[in-house]
Specification:
6 strands; 4-stranded mixed sheet; 1 helix; 26% helix; two-stranded antiparallel sheet; single chain; alpha+beta
């Protein structure tokens, strides 16, 4: 059983603007120096600042996450896991 904190507020983010969550590969917009994330037990988030003026790409397979929208973040995480699984399966077939 894994414990998960849904919609956890991370305060005191050093700068407002766009940040990239590196481990699960999605983008979030920080406002009022805070962001809301889903965090599972024993999980870390690595946020890399993209800037105030950075514009997210318009790829339908990579939805952008606003700091208060968890459902899109979950969808992005699920699609990343599926892509990684598909890559592993195709690598195993080619060996």
């Amino acid at each position: 059983f894994l414990f998960q904190i849904a919609h956890y507020c991370v305060p005191n983010i050093p700068a407002n603007g766009w940040w990239h969550e590196w481990t699960f590969n999605y983008d979030v917009k920080v406002e009022n120096n805070e962001v809301y994330l889903d965090i599972a037990e024993h999980e870390a988030k690595i946020l890399v600042w993209l800037g105030d003026d950075w514009q997210p790409p318009n790829h339908p397979s990579e939805p952008v996450v606003e700091s208060n929208d968890i459902s899109q973040e979950k969808q992005q995480t699920d699609s990343s896991l599926n892509q990684n699984s598909e890559l592993t399966q195709s690598e195993n077939r080619s060996q």
